[in-house]
User: Fold this.
Amino acid sequence: MTFAIQGLAVSRDIAIGRAVVLASSRVEAVHYFIRPEQIDAEIERARKSRNAVVDELRRLQEVMPKDAPGELDALLDVHLMLLQDVALAQAVKHWISERLYNAEWALSTQLEVISRQFDEMEDEYLRERKADLEQVVERILRHMKGMASPVAAPLPPAPPGAQRELLADGGAEESLVLVAQDLSPADMLQFKSRLFAGFVTAVGGRTSHTAIVARSMDIPAVVGARAAGQLIRQDDWVIIDGDAGVVIIDPSPIILAEYSFRQRQNQLERERLGRLRHTPSLTLDGERVDLLANIEQPGDGAAALHAGAVGVGLFRTEFLFMGRGGSLPGEEEQYRAYREAVDAMHGMPVTIRTLDVGADKPLDKASAKDYFLNPALGLRAIRWSLADPAMFRTQLRAILRAAAHGQIRLMFPMLAHQSEIEQTLAQVRLAQAELDARGTAYGAVQLGAMIEVPAAALMVRTFLRYFDFLSIGTNDLIQYTLAIDRADEAVAHLYDPLHPAVLRLVADVIAQCRAQGKSISVCGEVAGDVSMTRLLLGLGLRRFSMHPAQILAVKQEVLRADTRRLADWAQQVVNSDCPAQLLSN
Assistant:
């Protein structure tokens, strides 16, 4: 019997294949009290198991395929960071020495404590890092129990010649789709070498590691399909509708034929879009629109160029800092990374955002407890950098040095106060003075700011007195404007990019920048949403920055648009009490 499961759509397109179901691998921890004379031995057992898992993940990184997504390596770094967290080790030691818990009991107890703290966090990305912690603890418990890690579990071989395309007779080939409770970064690395047409997980959200890697690999995926593990059996036929976030089990011949047709149409559409790669991004009325890429690692430049990007609109530098066991990258290491990104773009501009850590991306040197009290409103982004000026200037010097080799635009996240602006620019001047004193060459950079909080959007005129360009980070701007956590199922339906308040803030920022001849871009999820492209063009936006996989679809919308006709309509949408209705017309 055919039935469907609703989840979250995190990576578009359709996958059809036989289910490879990974049994839930949660390890039961044994609980018993130890004698006082066993304390040291038990602590040592926990330490050795943790170190063994660290070695295992490092070996995985060493043999990682060159074509593995940069996000995958970064997420493995997050797991290594959690494994080597001093606070976790001390807490486990406490439960063993003070309560006389055995090592497994101590570890699982601390997991419960931290899990409750994660559940109380408001930030979606950080809350979903609980799954990373659970997977790390599970790997340690498996090692204590002498069990193979899930990543080493045997899987059925991919059928010869299996592809996502369809047979000439219209039937789907024997592709495989992976169904699991959750997938760790180590799992994803192992499974990448096998041919899976798509992924389904019972847990996870739009910013979970499974979602991030699925998007980077351009593989259809649905997460948060809670009943998947119970309802999907090994070798069932499964359809993953990555556009709608639906998983269909045991489809009827009619449904299978319909989705096979849609899959074939999607493939033809991808091939057709590929022909636009080298087409200039011009509207029908001759307006040039720059389509830029968001990247996380210096090596991501190749994918950006392949997608037809004319530059990097957002280089998220925090991935260079994460998962390093408390050791931050020095100036020389950062300089090499930034120069690699600049060289990869062959003269095209690279916008480098300074360190955006804190709420959702804690560094090793800070205990997780620093983020438990409303992390989204705490010490994060530029606030973090200004609180550690030595670290901040190290990054600034590295970026300035890299600017001697190409076009760099330097951008600062989450500014909200004029005093923060002044302090930030003072740090830039100090970094330049330090390089001058050393006689070290550096280049000129344009300076810009992210508009991510309503305060920044409302005082955009002040920002424009100080900065050469601005970039709207719609993900944070929407959440801060509406006080909505889109991961909270009780209020997720209220997270709305088309809310009149959000649109009016975006429209005003764009209008003010254009009036003063300053560059303005959008680098949040909205930039890659083709349903929003015409509206943003009508509001005057001419720079979009997005994941490389989204560029060609947005370019198609740009090529079909006439901005002269869109301008009046866009203002009507912004001024409407129900913008979504006008947008769909």
